[in-house]
Design brief:
Elements lengths: L12 E4 L6 H11 L3 E6 L2 H15 L4 E5 L5 H15 L4 E4 L20 H24 L3 E6 L12 H21 L4 E8 L2 E2 L1 H14 L3 H9 L8 E2 H12 L10 E4 L7
Parallel strand pairs: 1-2, 1-4, 2-3, 4-5, 5-6, 6-9, 7-8
Helix pairs in contact: 1-8, 3-4, 4-5, 6-7
């Protein structure tokens, strides 16, 4: 089913990294529904081909491109941006959504410090590599937007999630630095900070929790809903709409900001 159309991003070109089956896919679809041409990027070429074909049927194949990219490699980030300019004539917005979760329930005392690096390589350095590759293209457009995808874990830090939490916290600080550095070029840098998002990843996580705790799936959902202000969890699609807002001119005076989309789990 197609989502509601708008002209918020009409004529714009948006690059989305990490377009897996959850948030990344919804960001790409909502950007396309808002009128943008979208370059899809992920590490799986097969998935990219399938998604581009699917979304192209609804929003026009001429507005959907795909380029395989591992954001931990400078050359692949540069190739992604070059492919986008070749296909669509420029880049107006970059959404850095690729992520690595890092280890669960492993404290620093128990871990090898090097085990933190994979999460940093993707979440922090990978996002920076992608943005660095895109800066010349954004300058050629005389402005644009960068949207980082953060995590609620920077608001409610949990023991044993040090790699993931620290990499996302570092990314949030980097967004403030880049907002200052790129602001003179009319390039805005903001962050969406999702909480628990109802989607494939959370569904799998809840199933695992229910099994570990010998409770039902619905009981675990209820525990999570009771922890937020609204009578529901936020969804992947609702977070994707916040990304489109930050990529659009509706947020023209906003840079260096973090928008929490967590159904009222925390307030900042």
């Amino acid at each position: 089913m197609l989502i509601e159309r708008s002209t918020l991003l009409a004529g714009k070109v948006v690059v989305v990294s990490g377009v897996g089956p959850g948030l990344g896919r919804h960001i790409a679809e909502h950007a396309a529904a808002a009128g943008a041409s979208v370059m899809l990027s992920a590490r799986s070429q097969g998935y990219l081909d399938d998604l581009a074909s699917e979304l192209g049927q609804g929003y026009g194949a001429d507005r959907l491109g795909r380029t395989r990219c591992d954001v931990t490699a400078d050359a692949e980030c540069a190739a992604l941006i070059a492919a986008t300019e070749d296909r669509f004539g420029g880049v107006d917005s970059v959404v850095a959504n690729a992520f690595a979760t890092g280890s669960y329930n492993v404290t620093l005392e128990e871990a090898d410090v090097d085990s933190w690096m994979p999460a940093f390589d993707v979440n922090f350095f990978g996002s920076l590599r992608l943005v660095k590759a895109a800066i010349p293209a954004l300058k050629r457009r005389e402005g644009g937007t960068v949207v980082f995808v953060g995590s609620q874990i920077v608001r409610r830090v949990r023991a044993g999630r040090g790699a993931y939490a620290s990499s996302k916290a570092a990314l949030l600080t980097a967004s403030h630095v880049l907002a200052r550095e790129l602001g003179p070029y009319d390039i805005r840098v903001n962050t969406v900070v999702p909480g628990r998002m109802w989607g494939p990843s959370l569904h799998t996580y809840i199933e695992r929790l229910a099994e570990q705790r010998d409770t039902s799936f619905d009981e675990q959902v209820g525990v999570m809903v009771n922890d937020v202000s609204l009578p529901k969890l936020a969804t992947d699609e609702e977070c994707a709409r916040a990304v489109v807002f930050l990529a659009s001119e509706l947020s023209a005076a906003m840079t260096g900001q973090a928008i929490d989309t967590n159904a009222g789990e925390t307030f900042h």
